[in-house]
């Protein structure tokens, strides 16, 4: 495994692989890796000859009052895990390497932004203005740096994955996007870097989101309850369990718009705060 910190070093390393006609799989991450990330790395290794993983905490996808400064940076531990999962290249650039001039002009490091309309406006997009523009901009920059054949993203960030798929389609970016299933703790809690902010007691409590999502799915499939009544009852249950609910939405799984009774493929998207920690999760269903 080699570790590179500049775009020039990365492209040099990749040039040699391309000369040998190797296919490239890419897993973009913000580090602080857990088993969920490592399952994405394993998936990339399954489909491609060479796996590149980026470790980059992207400042442009954090709002002014969010946790960019305190986001855990665990470079040494991440590299060890990636080594154990057969990663070939770790790309860990500085903020200055990715956004030259960022330090001087914190609010506008790039004049160019990638914006995917509609898919990004509700759910997390409504709660975190500018977040998805930060994600699509960094992901397209990373795609241009790595030029992967495949890129793997987790389905826990369902809205992010839908937006990236659409960006790739709309901008004709020559990469195949692979969505990998959510990995869960034994109690059902979706694995996430932000779970590290939770105490053991809060982790048990946090599993309530998955329980309520599973309950909601069951109500829609078996008991054919209306979307509205399921949403309302789910919010009530989560509130009673100590969550501050941001949203609990039954949506069309392709458009992410409010679900219609005629829709067949649905996703239930949820975000809720436990203390200061914002957790997201989702389940998909076909009715
Ligand atoms: O999902 C994440 O960790 C980030 O949004 C990503 C895709 C690495 C972009 O910074």
The largest sheet, given as strand count, sense and whether it forms a barrel, is: 6 strands, parallel
Strand order of the largest sheet: 1-4-3-2-5-6
- List segments where confidence is low: pLDDT < 50 over at least 5 consecutive residues: none
CATH superfamily of the largest domain: HUPs
Q: Which structural class should the secondary elements be placed in?
A: alpha/beta
The Rg value, from CA coordinates, equals 19 Å
Number of strands: 9
Whole-number total of structural domains: 2
Q: How large is the count of helical segments? A: 10
CATH fold-level assignment of the largest domain: Rossmann fold
CATH C-level class of the largest domain:
Alpha Beta
Secondary-structure element pattern, one letter each: EHEHEHEHHHEHEHHHEEE
CATH architecture title of the largest domain = 3-Layer(aba) Sandwich
Bound molecules: pantoate
Percent of residues in helices: 25-40%
| pLDDT averaged over residues | 96
- The global form is globular
Estimate the strand proportion: 15-25%
**Ends apart, CA distance between termini:** 45 Å
Structural features:
single chain, about 290 residues, Rossmann fold, Pantoate--beta-alanine Ligase, Chain: A,domain 2, 6-stranded parallel sheet, 3-stranded antiparallel sheet, 10 helices, about 40% helix, binds pantoate
């Amino acid at each position: 495994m080699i570790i590179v910190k500049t775009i020039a070093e990365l492209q040099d390393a990749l040039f040699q692989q391309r000369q040998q006609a190797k296919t490239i799989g890419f897993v973009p991450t913000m580090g602080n890796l857990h088993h969920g990330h490592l399952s994405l790395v394993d998936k990339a290794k399954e489909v491609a000859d060479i796996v590149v993983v980026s470790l980059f905490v992207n400042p442009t996808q954090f709002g002014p009052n969010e946790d960019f400064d305190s986001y855990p940076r665990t470079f040494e531990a991440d590299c060890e895990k990636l080594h154990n999962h057969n990663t070939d290249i770790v790309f860990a650039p500085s903020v200055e390497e990715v956004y030259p001039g960022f330090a001087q002009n914190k609010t506008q490091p790039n004049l160019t932004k990638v914006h995917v309309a509609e898919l990004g406006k509700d759910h997390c997009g409504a709660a975190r203005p500018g977040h998805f523009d930060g994600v699509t901009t960094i992901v397209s920059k990373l795609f241009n740096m790595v030029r992967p054949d495949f890129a793997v993203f987790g389905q826990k960030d369902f809205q992010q994955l839908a937006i990236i798929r659409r960006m790739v389609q709309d901008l004709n970016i020559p990469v195949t996007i692979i969505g990998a299933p959510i990995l869960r703790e034994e109690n059902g809690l979706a694995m996430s870097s932000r779970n590290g902010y939770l105490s053991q007691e809060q982790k048990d409590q946090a599993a309530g989101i998955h329980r309520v999502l599973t309950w909601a799915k069951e109500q829609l499939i078996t008991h054919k309850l209306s979307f509205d009544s399921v949403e309302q009852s789910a919010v009530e249950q989560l509130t009673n369990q100590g969550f501050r609910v941001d949203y609990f939405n039954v949506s069309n799984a392709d458009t992410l718009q409010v679900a219609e009774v005629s829709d067949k493929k649905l996703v239930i998207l949820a975000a809720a705060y436990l203390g200061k920690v914002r957790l997201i999760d989702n389940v998909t269903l076909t009715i």
